[in-house]
From TrEMBL:
It comes from Sphingobium lactosutens DS20. Belongs to the BamA family. Part of the Bam complex. GO terms for biological process: Gram-negative-bacterium-type cell outer membrane assembly; protein insertion into membrane. The gene is bamA. This is Outer membrane protein assembly factor BamA. Residues 89-156, 157-234, 237-325, 410-484 form the POTRA domain. Coiled coil: none annotated. The chain crosses the membrane at residues 49-69.
Length: 920
């Protein structure tokens, strides 16, 4: 392969180019320095001057084009013909030479020269032009020998391959679709110029106005060439400054805040709005007009918008010239309706604007939409609502008459569904609240759209178009969906502030076989929990509106307490093996009933080496609450949930509310008997600008149906077992540690010393000399207020969703657990060489051991502590903070920073919590 070389510079672009004229039509211009363009020919230095000029003509289109000068070079003059006689004659013969792929007759077919016809110098020149216009030839000459014409051609080469070099910001798969040249095509200058222009335009859309494209041609054997596009991408052109001239009522900062384009500043490093885009410039003009119209300035207009590119092509300076005009108020506003079912007088009373209010164009648009939706509720899908404006420039008022033209009542002719390549039609149709033949209702159309979106099977761009049917009173609902991936295969490892290292593997298909069924299996392993689960859900069993599903699972949980230096020590281990069967039926459009049956086999154990003495759980070591929890038991429960849900999207709601009442009854066989009741509610409001405010609350109560329970020592204990109680803390209550809220027993340890046979004890201070065991509660409540904060498009594409929140809640309601040794009572052990260890008596400050222990060799007192019961109160705990969800490349990530403002003695707060590689 020959090395490409550059030719002499051939042409330049200036203000006379088509590109410049297009930019002027867009009302902005660019200051740039015109560059010459280059091309190449490896052999031109060795040819005669005339041949060099011809080669220059052939490659004239292969030029380096600045990003803002995209049009082709000036037209190329065809090379001069060999001198011909001035007098006219008759063509005696025509010979074609130099062809490789084309037949001579094919070459002649492109001209009007024929044997036996008269010819002149003008006709020969026209023949040259005709051949050059085919763009099949690199060189053409016509020699005339007294009527014997010889047409000498040199065919354009065939393209071997297209090569891109220097492109880093835009990958090949983004650029190649813009290139129309292809291997095995015939090379032409115009196609190269067009491809260069398209690539430059592509970079311009990316904000890189300094980008240049230099096409080169590498000669190969057999008249083949490689086309190489050498790309110099250049830096991204930013918006250095936005100037606004003519604004008196609003400051530059207020107007800039309404624009999508932003000035480039260091704190906008992640913003995509700082790059220049001419389409965005036009959009910003509309945004300015919308802003002024909502403020009452009905005569506002943008006189000009100019974007200047700095000489270094690094930045743009945008200047707007505006005329604000006068501010208007609403005059007389009313509604006139030609539809008999709609009363104009009644609708007028419900208009949001009143005479004397400042004029607001957005309010007028919203009113038109509201009136159209109102007409749609009565079945008038094509009702035409037109506002008639009556502008009075003398008193600066804007009167509006909303006219609702007469229209036929419409019925649904059919429902069309497009774009569902995987999902079966019936899965979508069963979410429709309208069927063929029903009277049209705009509210039910919107409800259908929300239900389809809530499936989670399609992109959020789902749309239900309303199209005229075969008759004026018929409508076709055309649903256009775009499938998205509903299967998830996850193999991940992560780190959680709660569970430390995590390994998770799961396979989930939420649209199994395109029938809307959900099939899932998961395995999770961490230092303190392990689980295996398999589940299946059929949302429409036997094509009836009845959901049926089931789960089989095995869950191992290691509960823990904090020891010295915040080390975590496993207390009890709970193993649960069981299954659940679920069913659900709708009651109304927004209310449904879910039923379930669960059977669990629980096994709670303690480490015998740590908590057992003489083969029995030792309350001095474990506490009565842990000794009471151990054992094997079977829980057979039946439950229901009554659900009321009006949210627009169950996955990411923006409006609506959700209320769930649940109860579970244990005792249908098994060893455990209780009634557990939960109530949760949430409501979402869109605040405008992408902000979403939500309030949610939940609470629960568990009541034992068993009789009195006693521990091994005969002491009464709470009827509800430790593993069945409610717990609060991380992650549901941000600002507090895992199980950090509610009743707990704290053990504070003592150090002992022996002097002259007298034993004394001293309580150790600090969190490093105590243990903290959460006991949970029988009643709890938790409330949250949260505002989701919108980010730019780039952040949304990254999956960033920040929010600020406030959490409040409490858990309580236990029977006093009965402390082993409170009020200073000692709970240690006496040991000495050659003697059996026995328990000490007395107080923590003055422990008492038998005298023979005190006088024996190696005498010591160990394990002294006292217990304190804290946190059993329903007084609210309160925390505030902010958090961020991020769908990172290595798994979902959630971080919360929360400060506990209200807490009770014994509560454990935590400032930062995060999870990586696990669901949140």
């Amino acid at each position: 392969m020959e090395k490409p070389v550059r030719l002499d510079r051939l042409t330049r672009f200036g203000q006379g180019s088509a590109a410049w004229r297009r930019l002027l039509r867009r009302k902005h211009f660019f200051a740039f320095e015109v560059e010459r363009v280059t091309a190449m020919n490896s052999s031109m230095r060795q040819r005669p001057i005339v041949a060099a000029l011809l080669a220059t003509t052939m490659i004239a289109g292969l030029t380096a084009v600045p990003a803002v000068a995209q049009d082709a070079a000036a037209p190329l003059a065809a090379p001069a013909t060999t001198a011909a006689p001035a007098a006219q004659g008759t063509i005696r013969s025509i010979t074609v030479t130099g062809t490789q792929r084309l037949e001579p007759d094919t070459v002649l077919s492109y001209t009007k020269l024929r044997i036996g016809q008269p010819y002149s110098q003008e006709s020969l020149d026209q023949g040259l032009r005709d051949l050059y216009e085919t763009e099949l030839f690199a060189d053409v000459q016509i020699r005339n020998d007294n009527g014997a014409l010889t047409v000498e051609v040199k065919e354009n080469p065939v393209i071997n391959r297209i090569v891109l070099e220097g492109n880093k910001r835009l990958k090949d798969d983004k650029i190649r679709p813009e290139i129309k040249l292809a291997p095995r095509q015939i090379y032409t200058r115009s196609k190269v110029r067009a491809d260069v222009a398209r690539i430059v335009e592509l970079y311009r859309r990316q904000g890189r106005f300094a980008a240049t494209i230099e096409p080169k041609m590498v000669q190969l054997d057999q008249n083949r060439v490689d086309i190489v596009f050498e790309i110099s991408e250049g830096p991204k052109s930013k918006v250095r400054q936005i100037n606004i001239i003519g604004n008196d009522k609003f400051s530059d900062g207020e107007l800039r805040s309404e624009m999508v384009t932003k000035q480039s500043r260091w704190f906008r490093i992640f913003s995509s709005g700082t790059s220049y885009d001419p389409d965005r410039l036009a959009y910003d003009q509309q945004k300015l007009r919308q802003f002024y119209l909502t403020e009452g300035y009905a005569d506002f207009r943008v006189i000009s918008a100019v974007a200047e590119l700095t000489p270094d092509k690094q930045d743009f300076i945008i200047t707007y010239v505006v005329e604000e005009g006068d501010r208007y108020k609403f005059g007389d506003v009313k509604v006139e309706s030609d539809i008999r079912d709609l009363s104009g007088e009644s609708l007028t009373k419900r208009l949001p604007m009143k005479t004397g209010d400042w004029y607001n164009a957005k309010l007028v648009e919203d009113t038109v939409d509201t009136l159209s939706e109102t007409a749609g509720l009565f079945g008038y899908a094509f009702a035409d609502v037109q506002p008639d404006f009556n502008r009075n420039k003398e008193d600066l008022t804007m009167g509006i008459n909303f006219r609702i033209a007469n229209a036929p009542r419409v019925y649904v002719e059919r429902v069309d569904i497009n774009g569902n390549t995987l999902t079966q039609d019936k899965v979508i149709r069963r979410e429709f609240r309208l069927a063929e033949g029903d009277a049209f209702n705009s509210f039910l159309v919107k409800r259908s759209k929300d239900r389809i979106n809530s499936l989670g099977f399609f992109q959020e761009k789902l749309d239900i178009e309303q199209k005229p049917g075969s008759a004026p009173d018929r409508i076709v609902l055309e649903t256009n969906v775009q499938e998205k991936s509903t299967g998830e295969l996850s193999l991940s490892a992560g780190f959680s502030s709660l569970e430390r290292f995590i390994v998770a593997a799961s396979i989930t298909q939420r649209n199994f076989r395109g029938k809307g069924q959900e099939l899932r299996t998961s395995i999770n392993y961490s230092a303190y929990s392990k689980s295996v689960e398999v589940g299946f859900t059929e949302p429409y069993f036997m094509d009836k509106n009845i959901a049926l599903g089931g789960d089989i699972y095995r869950r191992d949980l290691n509960s823990f307490q904090y020891l010295n230096n915040n080390d975590r020590n496993t207390t009890y281990e709970q193993t649960t093996t069981g299954f659940q069967i679920r069913a659900g039926v709708p009651i109304t459009e927004y209310m449904s009933l879910a039923l379930r049956y669960s059977l669990n086999f629980d096994d709670v154990t303690l480490d015998e080496d740590t908590y057992y003495t003489d083969g029995q759980c030792d309350p001095l070591l474990a506490g009565r609450y842990l000794c009471d929890a151990i054992g094997k038991r079977t829980t057979s429960s039946v439950g229901y949930s009554l659900i009321y849900d009006t949210r627009d999207n169950r996955i990411r709601p923006t409006r609506g509310n959700n209320v769930v009442l649940s109860q579970d009854f244990a005792g249908l066989g098994g060893d455990v008997k209780y009634v557990k009741t939960r109530l949760s509610a949430s409501k979402f409001w869109p605040l405008g600008g992408g902000f979403i405010f939500s309030l949610s609350g939940e609470g629960g109560y568990i009541h034992s149906l068993e009789g009195e329970r006693r521990d091994a020592s005969g002491e009464l204990v709470d009827k509800v077992r430790l593993v069945d109680r409610f717990f609060l803390g991380e992650p549901q209550f941000r600002g507090f540690d895992i199980r950090g809220v509610g009743p707990r027993i704290i053990r504070r340890y003592y150090s002992t010393s022996v002097k002259d046979g007298v034993v004394t004890g001293e309580r150790l201070t600090g969190n490093n000399n105590r243990t903290d065991d959460a006991l949970g509660g029988k009643i709890y409540y938790l409330a949250r207020a949260e505002v989701q904060i919108p980010l730019g498009s780039a952040a949304r594409e990254m999956g960033l969703r920040p929010s600020i929140f406030m959490d409040a809640g409490a858990v309580a309601g236990l029977k006093d657990p009965g402390l082993i040794n409170g009020n200073g009572q000692f709970a240690g052990y006496c040991s000495a060489s050659g003697l059996t260890t026995v328990r000490a008596t007395g107080t923590a400050a003055s422990p008492i051991c038998p005298s023979n222990y005190v006088t024996a060799d190696g005498f010591q007192v160990a394990g002294g502590f006292e217990e304190e019961y804290l946190g059993d109160t329903l007084k609210p705990r309160l925390s505030v903070g902010f958090g961020v969800n991020w769908n990172s490349p290595f798994g979902p990530f959630r971080i919360d920073i929360a400060k506990a403002l209200l807490k009770e003695p014994g509560d454990d707060n935590k400032l930062i919590t995060f999870n990586v590689g696990t669901q949140f």
